[in-house]
Write a structure and sequence with these properties.
Radius of gyration: 24 Å
Structural class: mainly alpha
Helix content: over 70%
Number of helices: 2
Largest sheet: none
Order of helices and strands: HH
Strand content: under 5%
């Protein structure tokens, strides 16, 4: 039981957990920004292709 308590104490004192959470939050924000940018660029490209198709 002492080993388990020591491991839990070591985990709580360690800063690896919060760092991993911070990286996960940053990754989620980057993904959201990328999806928004791709959606915007995709809409603009689709509009341009429709203009070219109508011209032809």
């Amino acid at each position: 039981m002492t080993k388990f308590a020591n491991r839990v104490k070591k985990f709580l004192v360690s800063e690896d957990g919060p760092t991993a959470v911070e990286y996960a939050v940053m990754l989620a924000l980057i993904i959201v920004v990328c999806l928004a940018a791709i959606s915007t660029i995709g809409g603009a490209a689709n509009s341009r292709f429709q203009q070219v198709g109508a011209y032809l």
